[in-house]
């Protein structure tokens, strides 16, 4: 079984890749930058000439939380490219292979895709787009036996928050850890049916200022 996992170098993506490898998956780590569509297309097409893919997990993501007028145009484009365009492009490139293997697409979105938070308009737009892409794609692919799942993690202790002025509380029941999300992904993969959407949250909401 072969899986493409983006965002594999840290955080949730790293935890997912590690768990898959522990369970006999070969994890394919793409080298192209996710915002370089031509390089991505070339790499994936070359890869699929010699092998098929059973699982595509779009996990890479970037964020920004500030007044919208303070966000640079380059940052706006980066969030759209990484959070939304790349998963759509990778799905497009892998879909014929996934139809052959009756595979599974899992998109790691965000709790922000389901609500409307202050200073999160751009991030929410990209993640809500990914969520709705996932849910609509499932309807398209039902007859092809390709599963599609959207997962919305809440606050998770990763390096995602390094550049922000806030982060999840250290209280155990106020944040998730990457391994929690990886375990949820594994349960989704092994579910006898299709979990089209899963929201994973800590019991309490607590953040701390840096």
TrEMBL record:
PANTHER family: 3-OXOACYL-(ACYL-CARRIER-PROTEIN) REDUCTASE, 3-OXOACYL-[ACYL-CARRIER-PROTEIN] REDUCTASE FABG. Belongs to the short-chain dehydrogenases/reductases (SDR) family. This is Short-chain dehydrogenase. It comes from Malaciobacter mytili LMG 24559. The lineage of its organism: Bacteria, Pseudomonadati, Campylobacterota, Epsilonproteobacteria, Campylobacterales.
């Amino acid at each position: 079984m072969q899986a493409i996992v983006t965002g594999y170098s840290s955080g949730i993506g790293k935890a997912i890749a590690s768990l898959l490898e522990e369970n006999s998956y070969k994890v394919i780590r793409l080298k192209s930058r996710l915002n370089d569509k031509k390089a991505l297309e070339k790499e994936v097409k070359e890869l699929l000439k010699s092998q098929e893919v059973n699982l595509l997990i779009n996990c890479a993501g970037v964020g920004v939380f500030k007044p919208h007028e303070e966000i640079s145009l380059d940052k706006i484009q980066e969030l759209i490219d990484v959070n939304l365009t790349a998963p759509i492009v990778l799905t497009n490139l892998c879909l014929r292979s996934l139809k052959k293997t009756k595979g599974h697409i899992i998109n790691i979105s965000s709790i922000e895709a389901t609500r409307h938070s202050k200073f999160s308009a751009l991030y929410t737009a990209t993640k809500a787009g990914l969520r709705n892409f996932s849910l609509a794609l499932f309807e398209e692919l039902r007859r092809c036996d390709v599963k599609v799942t959207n997962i919305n993690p809440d606050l998770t202790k990763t390096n995602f928050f390094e550049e922000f002025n806030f982060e999840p509380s250290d209280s155990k029941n106020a944040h998730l850890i990457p391994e929690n999300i990886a375990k949820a992904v594994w349960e989704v993969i092994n579910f006898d049916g299709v979990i089209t959407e899963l929201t994973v949250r800590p019991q309490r909401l607590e953040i701390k200022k840096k």
